Automatic annotation (TrEMBL):
Binding site for Zn(2+): 54, 87, 90
Role according to the record: This enzyme scavenges exogenous and endogenous cytidine and 2'-deoxycytidine for UMP synthesis.
Coiled-coil positions: none
Chemical reaction(s) catalysed: cytidine + H2O + H(+) = uridine + NH4(+); 2'-deoxycytidine + H2O + H(+) = 2'-deoxyuridine + NH4(+)
Catalytic machinery residues: 56 (proton donor)
Protein name: Cytidine deaminase
Keyword Metal-binding set for record: yes
InterPro entries: APOBEC/CMP_deaminase_Zn-bd, CMP_dCMP_dom, Cyt/Deoxycyt_deaminase, Cyt_deam_tetra, Cytidine_deaminase-like
Alphabetized SUPFAM superfamilies for the sequence: Cytidine deaminase-like
Length: 132
């Protein structure tokens, strides 16, 4: 089973594949899924700026297409920032496939620097209980 350090390494490797010519801000994400597989993603930007997608969203897409159903842990890494914390949209996307206690590892070049939960990132989340 992938460790937090393994997820950091996978997120950092993924960031090298980012397509971020506009922001010049590459990001990598790596998800440990319920099938034991690590699914990675990097941000993919677009000339039409709002059409860019975040690293976390790409990793989630890979996870779903790989047949996995749930996020057990996720690492996020950006070389140009001490700690890259998921944006608001990504917090909602991560919550969709996580438990409240699912751990999110915020990484810099030294590895995992901070561990937070999905619930801490998205308190009072809109979740399935809200729509029955
Ligand atoms: O958690 C984050 C935060 C930002 N970005 C991307 C979006 C955009 O391509 C670039 C600058 O915001 O970083 C991510 O991929 N994940
Ligand atoms: Zn995002």
């Amino acid at each position: 089973m992938a460790s937090p350090s393994d997820l950091f390494s996978a997120a950092r490797a993924a960031s090298e594949k980012a397509y971020a010519p506009y922001s010049k801000f590459p990001v990598g994400a790596a998800i440990l899924a319920d099938d034991g597989t690590v699914y990675a993603g990097a941000n993919v930007e677009n000339l039409a700026y709002p059409e860019g997608i975040c690293a976390e969203g790409v990793a989630i897409g890979h996870m779903i297409m790989g047949g996995a159903k749930a996020i057990k842990a996720v690492a996020v890494y950006a070389p140009r920032l001490a700690l890259c914390s998921p944006c608001g949209g990504c917090r909602q996307k991560l919550a969709e496939f996580s438990d409240k206690a699912t751990e999110v590892y915020l990484c810099d070049d030294g590895g995992v620097r901070e561990t937070v939960t999905v619930a801490a990132l998205l308190p009072h989340a809109f979740d399935t209980e809200d729509i029955g």
